């Protein structure tokens, strides 16, 4: 449908077709109906960004010209974010409707069109798409588990960091996860309102960037932690206890600073966008049609947020396995592996969304998988407390903080024996415990 006529100014397509009309008393009759399909918005920005329920609409050059293209375009439009999963059906309804009235080119003339299912009369039926509740349920689960869990880990590691410099790494990891968990209720409000943004232009640039800040900080801290442990095991005499504590604090501060700088490129391209079908204000990422800008942001995110730290972590742990066979660190290894398992699909999907051709099967499949991928990435915010409790499970009967303390000590008990054979300083040996 909607292939025989097109107006390039408003992207409206029209066709006349005889369709069966069912009568109230039974039976049906044919009636000629003029179809008017309004597709997208002439000023829609383009690009991809999965996190925090913020999305980019397709460029004007990518808008569908046939009914087949329309179906494919709906697969890659605002539904390409976790927050918009539940509103996909509404976007499909509001993007095309039947009307016998005369054609109007004014956006305001279409502001009161009811956003209801096409097979239901206005107000006669309502349905709740289970997918619409999925993002809210995920946000709630991550928040309820991550907030108390990371708060407990932060409290325990803060107390332990006074005596063991290595615990500082876990303190900052818990703070990064807490930051992500704190942002979820704020973003969930936008999801509950069908994608409508309520926090203004400044909030559009800052609030969604919190999750990216948490991601960058976590991965940089894990890279620094791996390098610290590698130096500690292979060159234990290079640093004393006080020097190592100072070095760890400086490294943690540098990780937060670099993470903040890496978040800036994504925040620059965020802006408010007035959507007219249905009418609402949305927070989107607008690259202004620049492929170079979109590819640059994606490359920065992939290299500094995944590939670079992965190389450092793999190199450090590979060196430990080759040169310090008895060096074991169950908690640290679990935290590192858990991070990359949760975030690897997200970065892979980001590359696919950037490189896939418009209207391709690959792009449509990637967008369908996007809610699961983003959900897995967000779930990492509540993973570390579970790993602490698992590694300290022998002390769970005593208390949860005791289990966390045991996980910290147990993970480094083997390291202490390695270092004690290479160093004569008792203070240094006692400080090695995380």
TrEMBL record:
Which InterPro entries does the UniProt entry name for this protein? Anphylx_rcpt_C3a/C5a1-2, Formyl_rcpt-rel, GPCR_Rhodpsn, GPCR_Rhodpsn_7TM
Q: Which PROSITE patterns match?
A: G_PROTEIN_RECEP_F1_2 (PS50262)
Which organism does this sequence originate in?
A: Sus scrofa (Pig)
Q: Which cell locations does it reside in? A: Cell membrane
Q: How does it sit in the membrane?
A: Multi-pass membrane protein
Pfam families according to UniProt: 7tm_1
| Biological process per Gene Ontology, one example term | chemotaxis
Give TM regions. Answer: 136-158, 170-191, 211-234, 246-269, 299-322, 329-352, 372-391
Q: Which residues form the G-protein coupled receptors family 1 profile domain?
A: 149-388
Instruction: Supply the alphabetized keyword list.
Output: Cell membrane, Disulfide bond, G-protein coupled receptor, Glycoprotein, Membrane, Phosphoprotein, Receptor, Transducer, Transmembrane, Transmembrane helix
Q: Name one GO molecular function term.
A: complement receptor activity
Describe the task this protein carries out.
Receptor for the chemotactic and inflammatory C3a, C4a and C5a anaphylatoxin peptides and also for their dearginated forms ASP/C3adesArg, C4adesArg and C5adesArg respectively. Couples weakly to G(i)-mediated signaling pathways.
User: In the UniProt record, does the keyword Cytoplasm occur?
Assistant: no
Taken from the UniProt entry, a GO cellular component term is: plasma membrane
- State how it assembles: Interacts with C3 (the anaphylatoxin peptide C3a and the adipogenic hormone ASP); the interaction occurs with higher affinity for ASP, enhancing the phosphorylation and activation of GPR77, recruitment of ARRB2 to the cell surface and endocytosis of GRP77.
**What protein does this entry describe?**
C5a anaphylatoxin chemotactic receptor 2
Q: Which family does it belong to?
A: Belongs to the chemokine-like receptor (CMKLR) family.
Matches recorded under SUPFAM superfamilies:
Family A G protein-coupled receptor-like
């Amino acid at each position: 449908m909607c292939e025989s006529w097109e107006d390039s100014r408003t992207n409206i397509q029209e066709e006349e077709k005889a369709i069966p009309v069912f009568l109230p008393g039974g039976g049906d009759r044919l009636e000629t109906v003029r179809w008017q399909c309004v597709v997208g918005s002439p000023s829609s920005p383009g690009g991809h960004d999965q996190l925090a329920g913020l999305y980019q609409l397709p460029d004007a050059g990518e808008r569908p010209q046939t009914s087949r293209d329309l179906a494919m375009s709906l697969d890659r439009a605002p539904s390409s974010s976790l927050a918009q999963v539940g509103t996909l059906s509404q976007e499909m309804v509001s993007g095309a409707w039947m009307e016998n009235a005369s054609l109007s080119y004014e956006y305001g003339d279409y502001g009161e069109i009811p956003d209801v299912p096409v097979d239901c009369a206005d107000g006669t039926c309502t349905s709740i798409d289970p997918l619409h509740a999925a993002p809210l349920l995920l946000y709630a689960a991550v928040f309820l588990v991550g907030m108390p869990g990371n708060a407990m880990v932060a409290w325990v590691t803060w107390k332990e960091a006074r005596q063991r410099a290595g615990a500082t790494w876990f303190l900052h990891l818990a703070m990064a996860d807490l930051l992500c968990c704190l942002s979820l209720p704020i973003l969930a409000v936008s999801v509950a309102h069908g994608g409508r943004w309520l926090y203004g232009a400044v909030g559009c640039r800052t609030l969604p960037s919190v999750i990216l800040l948490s991601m960058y900080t976590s991965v940089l801290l894990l890279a620094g932690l791996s390098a610290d442990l590698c130096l500690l095991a292979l060159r234990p005499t290079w640093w004393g206890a006080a020097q190592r504590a100072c070095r760890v604090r400086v490294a943690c501060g540098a990780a937060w600073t670099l993470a903040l700088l890496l978040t800036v490129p994504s925040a620059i391209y965020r802006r408010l966008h007035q959507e007219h079908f249905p009418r609402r204000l949305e927070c989107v990422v607008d690259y202004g049609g620049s492929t170079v800008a979109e590819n640059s942001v994606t490359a920065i995110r992939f290299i500094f947020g995944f590939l670079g730290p992965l190389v450092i972590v793999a190199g450090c742990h590979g060196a430990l396995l080759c040169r310090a066979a008895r060096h074991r660190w169950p908690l640290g290894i679990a935290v590192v592996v858990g991070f990359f398992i949760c975030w690897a699909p997200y970065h892979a999907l980001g590359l696919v969304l950037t490189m896939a051709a418009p209207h391709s099967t690959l792009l449509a499949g990637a967008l369908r998988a996007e809610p699961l991928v983003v959900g897995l990435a967000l779930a990492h915010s509540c993973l570390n407390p579970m790993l602490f409790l698992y590694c300290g499970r022998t002390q769970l009967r005593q208390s949860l903080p005791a289990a966390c303390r045991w996980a910290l000590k147990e993970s480094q008990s083997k390291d202490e024996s390695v270092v004690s054979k290479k160093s004569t300083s008792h203070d240094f040996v006692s400080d090695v415990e995380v």
